[in-house]
Every structure is written in structure tokens, then in C-alpha cells.
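Section 4.2 – Deliverable D4.2 (structural model, holo form)

The reporting period included a commitment to supply a predicted holo structure for the target in complex with KG4. Inputs used:
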Amino acid sequence: MAVGKRVGDAMILSIESSCDDSSIAITEIATKKLIYHKKISQELEHSQYGGVVPELASRLHAVALPAILSECEPWFNELKAIAVTNEPGLGVTLIEGVVMAKALSVALNIPILPINHLKGHIYSLFIEKESQFPLTVLLVSGGHTQLIEVRSYSDMETVATTMDDSYGESFDKVAKMMKLGYPGGPLIERLAHSGDASKLSFTVPLWQSPLIAFSYSGLKNQVRLAVETVSYEEYPDIAAAFQKTATDHLIQKLKKYFKTKPPLRFAIVGGASANLYLRSQVQQMLTVYKAPLLLAPLEYCSDNAAMIGRCSLEAYSLNLYVNHTDVAINPRCKL
Ligand code: KG4
Ligand code: ZN
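Output (C-alpha cells):
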């Protein structure tokens, strides 16, 4: 051990590249403290296409990740493992992070902790603090809409999922219809502020169905028809009505689920958990159950390596390391 180093200086370097954010974090193992975190988003580059172009994302990661990594060299001697998102995500972007993790693993002679991106989002709630379980989690991102019962790091059960598009993806698609850019979530949320949701009425998806599942493709088509038939000045009203209906759908299914399993504590995670309308509606619903609502700080809702780092501390304590030759990439894996 280097002179002057405290016991507890051992750290994990974490890499996230599952979609369009290149991010690296360094987390101290003993204290769970986030020592370093940087993220380079590709939103501008993908904006002109109205969505993420996988091959372009992959090439941008190949430039951004080494640039961020060069800032991490001062901590290389303290690293005990490299954590990397290996599932789920875009195959061509996951591989950029995984190849970097493998190279670091060989060069520094330390193992790899493969991390599930969805678990990472759940641990975004506990960056620099202790986890709290059991927990019912609504994960809303660009790729997923899932209701998850979380009992521990290794015991997570998906109890409801989407039948087609995800909540965040539907915002992206509606923004694309209105030619607003990408990512659509914040753009639609902002537009909705100046709109009147009562001016249009969209049908809440699956409202008559006994299924506890989510669906956004029908709502997307209702919005498409509205966009095609109204004038540009009415876009804020469409945005407000869409956001309300998309969120009412989540609330309706959550209430149905809670009839059989009321929540002890509840969390919303994922990029779309930054939506303030969604946050307020869920908060209001939870008062009946007296369940606290856990939320990640806004800066850690969308993809980032800080959450992968926090998640990797659990994997590290459970000795879930693998050799650099044994990291599988699973683009479609769930939990
Ligand atoms: O978790 P994330 O960064 O990436 C995935 O794992 O998919 O989530 C990105 C998604 C995008 O679809 C984006 O439009 C959505 O989260 N999003 C929002 C908001 N901010 C981001 N959706 C609704 N309202 C927002 N304020
Ligand atoms: Zn994500």
C-alpha cells in the first residue's frame, strides 16, 4: 500500500455505454462515496434524427470513453475491480464499454463486475447512501416500463411490463411527430406547461382491461392523428393531453396492482422519472397508502455511471466478479 493511503481507499471504476451516454465513475468501496463522475451525452448528435442511431452512438462512445478515462488515471493504483454495464441495451454501444473494461482488467490485473443496467437505475436511488428494501419500483426509461418488486440485489421480480413501447419512448415518438427534437421527454414536458390538457381527450390505454401491463402504441397513434389534424398553435394542448393520458395509464395500473399488494415504500427510477408531472401524480396517489416515495436526484435519473458504480458495490460484496474472458453482452436481457 502506498505511503499515506488510508485503508478504505479501494475503489471501483464503472463504465456505462448502454445507449447514448458515455459515462465513467469512480466509487470508494468502504464509504460508498462517489469520488469521480463524468458523462458525455450524445443528445445533440442524435437530435436531427429524432432518436438514437446505434452505429453513430457506438462511434461517439469510441471517442468519448477514452477521453473520460484519461482523467481517471490518478486512481488506477487504487482500483479493485472494473464494473461495466453489459445488459440490456444496444449491442453496438454496450460493446464499447465492455471492450474498455476488458482492456483495463488485463492491464491492471483486476476482475470485472458485469452490471445489469436496470439494477443500476434502481441503485441510482442510493448513491452515497444505504439501500432500503423491500421496495416497489416503477422503472420508466426509453427502453423500459416495468413494475419491479425489489427484495435485495439478487432478488428482483418484474411484476408488470409494457406490451409495446415504453413510457419514455412514447414521449420521444410524440416529440418526433411534432419535429421538436430528441430526447422527447423534457421537450414534451416543457411544451405541456403552456398547454391545456382538457382541450383534447385521448383514451387511456388498457383502461378496461384486467391486465396489469402497460401499452403506449395505441396512444401514440391517437396523438399522431391529432398532430395531423390540428394547427401548430395547438401542439402544447396535445403535449399536455398526451402527458396526462400516458401518466394516468401508469397511475391506473399501479392502483390496480396495489389492491392486491399495497406498497411499503415506492420508487420511480429511469430517465423519465425526471418528469415532474409523473412525480406529483405518484406522490398524490401514495398518500392513501402512507408509503414514502423514493426518487433519485434529477442528475442521476437518466443513464450515468454513478448508478452503475453504486450498484457494483453490491456485486463486489457478493463476490460476483468475472474474468475478462467471461463477460457476456446481453442486449435484450431484463433483470
Ligand atoms: O434511462 P434513460 O436515460 O435511458 C434508457 O435507459 O432508456 O431514459 C431516457 C428516456 C428517454 O426516452 C427520454 O425522453 C425520457 O427518458 N425522459 C423523459 C423525461 N426526461 C427524460 N420522459 C418524460 N419526461 C421527462 N422529463
Ligand atoms: Zn437507462
